[in-house]
Structures are given as structure tokens and as C-alpha cells.
Amino acid sequence: MKMKIAIIGGTHGNEPVGIEVIKNLELKKEASSVHEYDCFLANPMALKEKKRFVDTDLNRSFGAKGTRLGNEETESARLTSEISGKYDFILDLHTTTSNMGLTVLLNNDNELTRQAAVRIQKIMPEVKIIEGMRMNDDCPYTSNLIGAGLTIEVGPVANNVLDAKLILETKKMVMAVLEWDFEDRYDLKEIKHYKSFGEYEFPKESGWYIHPELEGSDFKELNPGDPVFINMDEEVKGFEGDSSITPFFINEAAYQDDRLAMTMSKVRLGF
Predict the structure, then answer these.
(1) In the structure, what pLDDT confidence band is assigned to residue 184 with cuts at 50, 70 and 90?
(2) pTM: predicted TM-score of the whole model, two decimal places
(3) 150 in helix, strand or coil?
(4) Which CATH number fits domain 4-186: 3.10.310.10, 3.40.50.620, 3.30.420.40, 3.40.630.10?
(5) Which of 60, 133, 139, 164 has its CA 20 to 30 A from that of 107?
């Protein structure tokens, strides 16, 4: 099945790993003989300023639920014009400061999206599959430009840092899709993934930090009462959920202003 694929880097201007990958892919389009693809630098001004965004988060600027202001309103309109309705599949490349390793995030329930995620995992078993809270028309992310596609999220890496290992691994994840014929089918009933269902906030009062036992423990089970926060007096606040969860995006730098400590998920078997 011949596909037209849009590959996006630099949705956030302080995440250069994806930008390096699309630069390489632009130079080596012959690397994929299966599909046509084009690469897009999403937010040139944010990249120039080495900032996540200029006026508002571009990765929250698409679809009916998106918020668009200033520079990101312009870039959202440009990308929509250049990509929406013109491609069959989209890959949006990101990094995180959290200790998440290699992940793919799904924000639509399209069969091709799920099959592509599993394809990547079959090539690279360490890849984790996450299904988001915001799905299909409720999703304001860049991946919402196309009805089928996914976000590649790798870490940990500090903002504006070029990590060679993550660059190479991101490229390998992209090539797992570009070299796939989209015709093989995997049994989705047997696929372990993480279904996110909410975000856990920092305490309202200042001076609380992620507890050392939780820091870096993405995708490890968190039980009610387990340490989540600690302050300078070494007082501890435990997890207040009713049941065990699997957290990720723990202490992600970009979410500090919104007081988000982590994303909560449950392990699921099968879509």
C-alpha cells in the first residue's frame, strides 16, 4: 500500500532531536522505497529562540479544541494548509525531560495508527505504546492534522540538547514505519499498552517537589500511599488515588507552569 506520509519536527522549538532526524530524512529520501514522505519544520521562530513556543503551545493548536495565538496561530494555519487532506499518515517527533525511554502516543483510534504503533514495537521491543486521554476530534495536537498517525516521544533529554542515542533511536522508529508496507496486520487483542486517564497535580502550596523515590520512575506501578511529594522539612505526601496506577511524564519540565506532576495511566491488554 503506497502511502503519503508527513513527518514533523520542531513542533516545540527546544526539542532538536526530531529536527535532526527530519534534516537527515530530507537528505536521504531514497531511504524509503515503499512510501512518499515530506518533512516539515513546524515552528521556526520557536526554534530560533530555542523555546518550547513563542505565544502558545503549537501542540495544543489544532482541531476544534485547539488554542491558537500569535506565532503559533500562523504556524498552525500554515501546517493545516500544507498537510491536512494531502497526506495519509503523520509522524510528529518529540522529546521529553521525563525518564520515559522510547514511546509512541496514539490520539486517534484509526486502525492504521494502532497497527503502525505495533509495527514499531515489533522492530524495537523496548518501545511503549500509550493511548491518550484526548482522542480523535477532542485532540488538539499536531497529530490531529491527519486522521491516522502518531507521536513519537523519547527521553530523558534536557531541552535544547542533542542526544546522539535518542537521535538514532528516533530515526530507527521513523524508518520502522517508512519501510513498512501498511498491509501486514497484527493481533491488536494481545497488545499491552498504557491508557492515560488523568493528570496528577502538585499541591497548591509551594515548596513541594517530586519525591526521590518517584523521580525517574516512569512506567513503574504507583500504589495508594506511595511517596509522591516531599518538602524541605522532609514531610511527605503520598499518592491519594483509590487504586494502583502507572505514571509517566513524571516531573516533565514543560508541565511545571501548569502544576502537573505526572500523567496517570492504567495498563491495558488489547485495543
Answers:
(1) confident
(2) 0.96
(3) strand
(4) 3.40.630.10
(5) 164
